[in-house]
Every structure is written in C-alpha cells, then in structure tokens.
C-alpha cells in the first residue's frame, strides 16, 4: 500500500491536470482572462471571460487538494482574483486582494498556489480590481468531501452550481466612472441566473435537468455587486444542508434570501409532475422588484413551465426570522473551527470588542463609504508586502480607527485602515447599520460564529440573546437596515486579512479594512514565507528580499 501511494499519477480532470505523488493531490489550472461580448439581459456588454466562459469555469476540488492556478491577464488593465471563503491558513499571500497582492499587469501572468484543506462546502471566486466583478471573471468553487469522510446526507443524483446576481448594462468602465465622479450606481437593470434569463417563449434551453424521483444538490451563490436576492424553485422545496463551509440543520424552505457574497447548498427532490419548472430569483429590499427565471427540465417531461411564479417574501422582518432558523449541524463530520482548543465558543472570554458603524458621506463633494469615520484609501503598495519588507510605517498606520464609532460619525477622512490584532485573541465584532440600505460583510482568512442579529442599536445587554451553542460558522454576514449583527472568532490565522463590504460600490469607495495578525515568534509554524515569484509593486519593488523565517 505504501509503495502504491508513492506512485505518481498524471491525468486530465475537468480541464485541469491532477498530480498525486505520495501526499495530497495537486490540481493544475490555466486561466486566460479576456474581454468578450456578453448579454445576460439581452443587451450586448463588454464582459470579462475566463477561458472564453461567462460565468467562469467551476473550480472543482476535494479536501486537502493543492490548487495551482496560472492566471494570464489578457486585458488592457490590471486584474486580480480572490478565492472568497478559502481560508488560506498561514498563507494570506494567496488571498488575491489588493492589500496582500499586487494586481497582475496587462499581458502578464501570476500563479496562485494554495491548499483548500478540510473546508467541505460551496464558495466562489471573483475579481477584486476596479468594477470587473460587475461583468464577469467570477465562478463557483467547490470543495468536496473525500470518500472516507461522510457528509450528513445521501449522495445526490447530480451536483449543480447556480450563480445568481444583479446586472448593470452600463458595463464596468462606465460604472467605475460613475463612482469616480462621486455618484451612486442606482438600481440594477436586471438579474441573471448563470449568466442567462429565461424568455418564457417555449424555446429556452434548461439550466438544469432532473429525473423524477431523484434528489439533486444545488450550490447557490450570489455573485452580484449590490443586490440581495431571494431564490425559490417553482413547485419544489429546498432542504438547506450547507452554508459557506458548515453543514447546517436540515430545514426545508420555500425560498431563501441569499445576500451578496453568500453561498448556500440545498437539496431539491424531483417529486412533481414531469415537465418544466422555473427557478426564480427576485431582488430584495429594493423599491422596484426585479425577477428573473431559468428553466429546470424533467427528463422525458412534457409541458411548459407555468407562468404563475411562486411569490417572493415581503419585508426585512421575514429575512431576520429566516436567519434565526439557521443552525449548525453539530453531529456532522466536517471540520469545525476550534477556538482556543474548545468547540464551546460560547464559554470563551472575549478579549476585545470592536464595533463598526458604516456611513455614507461626501468628501470634497464626492461620495465615500466609511467605517467608524474613516474611508479606506488603497495604497500603491500592498499592506502585507509593506509589513513583510519592514516599511509599513511608510505606507500605513495601525489602528487608524477606534474600536467604537466616534460620537460624530458624520466626518470622514481617507486612509488605509489596518487593525493590529493580537494572535489568538478571541474577538467580538459588532456591525451597526444606521442606514436604510442592507449591508453584507466578508472576512477573508477565517470563518466566524454569526451569533446575533436584531433591529436597533447594539448594547452589551444584547449578548443575552446570542446563540452561544450552534451558530453557523461562516465567512459572510448581512446587516439589515437600521440593525446590527454580531460575530465571534479567534484571530489565530497569521497574515493580513480583508474585512470588506461585499456590496461592491461600497467596497470600491472605502467600506473595508484589514486585520493584521503577526506571528509573535516569526515562525513557519504560524505563517509561510513570501512565495517565490510573487509580484512586487509600489515602494518594495526592487528592494532586496527579506530573510525568510527559518523554523
């Protein structure tokens, strides 16, 4: 058996190359990023394609796979892609955000190398540069369970990825100009499902096919830039089984609110009369509701989908109540966060509380979005490179914002925001939203316990209502209008990690920050060295490479 494990195997798998040599398998991908015409809503738009595809190809992996993605930027502008939800343990060098990586220049390439570890679940990738995400460059990223690790449901007949999102026909260049001029993007022009919208004329090709009596897995991700969406299957219920890398208690839902940046996995059983049915996505919390559909076709079915669509929910209270039904499946075998050696996160003492309040203000007449009075200003040198090369003081200052919103949160300044986090501290983060627009936040490098959400302002007494037993461990959290949300986590993953608004116009105009977690021992046990071949830019370009960690 040992000899067999040392035999190298090389073969093609779903457009990638898989190599196994003794240890964990390595998947090789080559991506060519180009412009191309797309028309999700019927209007031709200059889109961003990966290997000629919109949306981009599914990145299909298994726990502990090593992933190597060589990205060739054939655009006429810098490009960078992030792996949303992949934790990159000890390896923020591969996170693919502008605080850790230089963007890939036009005509150049960069090779990402990372391991997906044991994060069984559904994720996505997308570009972080400019407004590229509005027109493509995104796709599904799945981490499957190894055969020896069972999941808490039977194998589905098939495994589908459903990427839903809002869409703006103006194109990414025009959207960037609007934001740069200090204006708001306004409402989206429509919604797409996997880059398509059913016309309902009887000629639509199906997005997915099902066979009567069988159960299918759908990985649903909101890859849009601004709008929360409600997803439902005509005539069918959804059994929620996984959310951003955590198996959940398996409740049935007629519809699910999926906020920007979030991914859910559901099981749908083909138990209706064999014919066509619609999968429906509708905008939420918008003045004008926009709905799009896609076809799900039963094999050997007869009959078009009914024009009577299942209605969407109404109001934000419905979404709040749905959040409260989400529970972590404590009996499943997937890996769990292990803060300070205990799965009982509710009994760990909080060492730091950070309350973040978002605001929209004008600075020199132009719209900016801020956290605790500071709007993030992107430096030309990535924060992590500046820190590693010992020139951080020339690029940013630590703890630019206070742990509490200032009493006058209407004044906004521009600066890089970096929170200095003590390694392995157990931290509480409160997101307060005093605006009428919904918020959605993502923290890279981690999963956190989403323990609370309610209307009004947060106060310490609200902790009495936290879920300290089975809150879902995830990497995104929504904050409803005039409400708050609370998360708990241990900052035990060394690196520079982006806490950002997933609402992309807010992200672009400053609603983000970074958390710096430095190894106290400067040890390889805590963080990997700067990779060979990493792109350099800004003030570190041409500087001698610092000595590596030795142990």
What distinguishing features does this structure have?
mainly beta, signal, 6-stranded mixed beta sheet, Immunoglobulin-like, 551 residues, globular, 7-stranded mixed beta sheet, 5 helices, Cu-oxidase-like_N
Structure description:
The chain folds into three domains: 26-144, Immunoglobulin-like (Sandwich); 158-325, Immunoglobulin-like (Sandwich), CATH 2.60.40; 345-517, Cupredoxins -  blue copper proteins (Immunoglobulin-like). The protein has helices spanning 2-6, 172-180, 316-323, 383-388, 504-508; strands at 9-13, 16-20, 26-38, 45-50, 59-62, 66-73, 81-84, 109-115, 121-127, 139-144, 159-167, 190-193, 208-210, 215-222, 229-233, 238-243, 246-247, 252-253, 255-258, 263-269, 276-283, 291-298, 352-363, 366-371, 374-376, 413-415, 418-421, 426-433, 439-443, 448-455, 473-474, 476-479, 483-490, 495-501, 512-517. The strands form seven sheets. Strands 11, 12, 14, 16, 17, 18 and 20 form a seven-stranded mixed β-sheet that branches. It has five helices and 35 strands. The chain is mainly beta and 551 residues long. It is globular and about 70 Å long. Helix 4 (383-388) links the parallel strand 25 (374-376) and strand 26 (413-415).
Total strands: the figure is: 35
Number of helices: 5
Major β-sheet profile? 7 strands, mixed
Radius of gyration in whole Å, from Cα? 23 Å
By CATH, the superfamily of the largest domain comes out as Cupredoxins -  blue copper proteins
Low-confidence stretches: 1-15
The CATH class of the largest domain, by name, is Mainly Beta
SS content category: mainly beta
- Straight-line distance between termini: 32 Å
**How much of the polypeptide forms β-strand, as a percent range?**
35-45%
The assigned CATH architecture of the largest domain is Sandwich
Helix content: under 10%
Count of domains: 3
Principal-axes shape call: globular
Overall average residue pLDDT: 93
- For this structure, the CATH topology of the largest domain is Immunoglobulin-like
Signal peptide: 1-22
Domain Plastocyanin-like: 32-146, 158-300, 381-521
GO molecular function, one term: copper ion binding
Keywords: Glycoprotein, Signal
């Amino acid at each position: 058996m040992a000899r067999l494990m040392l035999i190298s195997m090389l073969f093609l798998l779903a457009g990638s190359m898989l190599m196994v040599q003794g240890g964990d398998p390595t998947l090789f991908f080559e991506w060519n990023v180009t412009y191309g015409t797309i028309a999700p809503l019927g209007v031709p738009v200059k889109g961003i394609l990966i290997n000629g595809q919109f949306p981009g190809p599914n990145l299909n992996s298994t726990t502990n796979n090593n992933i190597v993605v060589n990205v060739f930027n054939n655009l006429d502008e810098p490009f960078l892609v992030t792996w949303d939800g992949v934790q990159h343990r000890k390896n923020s060098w591969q996170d693919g955000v502008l605080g850790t990586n230089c963007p890939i220049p036009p005509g150049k390439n960069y090779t990402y190398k990372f391991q997906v570890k044991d994060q069984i679940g559904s994720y996505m990738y997308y570009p972080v540069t400019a407004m590229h995400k509005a027109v493509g460059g995104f796709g599904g990223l799945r981490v499957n369970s190894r055969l020896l690790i069972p999941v808490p449901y039977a194998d589905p007949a098939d495994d589908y990825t459903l990427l839903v999102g809002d869409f703006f026909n103006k194109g990414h260049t025009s959207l960037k100009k609007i934001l740069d001029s200090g204006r708001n993007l306004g409402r989206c022009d429509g919604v797409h499902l996997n880059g398509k919208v059913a016309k309902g004329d009887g000629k639509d090709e199906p997005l997915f096919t099902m066979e009567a009596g069988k159960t299918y897995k759908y990985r649903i991700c909101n890859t849009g830039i601004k709008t929360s969406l409600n997803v439902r299957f005509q005539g069918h219920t959804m059994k929620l089984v996984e959310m951003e890398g955590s198996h959940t208690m398996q409740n049935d839902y007629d519809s699910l609110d999926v906020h920007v940046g979030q991914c859910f996995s559901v099981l749908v059983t083909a138990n209706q009369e064999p014919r066509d049915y619609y999968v429906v996505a509708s905008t939420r919390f918008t003045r004008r509701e926009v709905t799009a559909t896609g076809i799900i076709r039963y094999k050997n079915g007869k009959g078009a989908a009914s024009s009577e669509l299942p209605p969407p929910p109404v109001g934000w209270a419905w979404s709040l109540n749905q959040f409260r039904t989400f529970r972590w499946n404590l009996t499943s075998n997937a890996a769990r966060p292990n803060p300070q050696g205990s799965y009982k996160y509710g009994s760990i003492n909080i060492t730091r509380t950070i309350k973040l309040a978002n605001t929209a203000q004008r600075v020199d007449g132009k719209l900016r979005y801020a956290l605790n009075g500071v709007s993030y200003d992107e430096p030309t040198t990535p924060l992590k490179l500046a820190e590693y090369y010992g020139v951080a003081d020339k690029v940013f200052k630590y703890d630019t914002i206070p742990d509490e919103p200032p009493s006058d949160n209407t004044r906004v300044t521009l600066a890089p925001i970096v929170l200095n986090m003590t390694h392995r501290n157990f931290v509480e983060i409160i997101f307060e939203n005093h605006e009428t627009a919904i918020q959605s936040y993502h923290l890279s490098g981690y999963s956190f316990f989403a323990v609370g959400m309610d209307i009004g302002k947060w106060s310490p007494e609200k902790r009495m209502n936290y879920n300290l037993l089975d809150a879902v461990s995830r990497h995104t959290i929504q904050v409803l209008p005039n409400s708050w949300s609370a998360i708990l986590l241990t900052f035990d993953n060394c690196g520079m990690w982006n806490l950002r608004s997933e609402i992309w116009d807010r992200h672009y105009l400053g609603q983000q920050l970074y958390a710096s977690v430095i190894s106290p021992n400067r040890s390889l046990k805590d963080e990997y060295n700067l990779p060979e071949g990493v792109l350099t830019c800004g003030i570190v370009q041409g500087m001698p490479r610092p000595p590596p960690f030795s142990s």
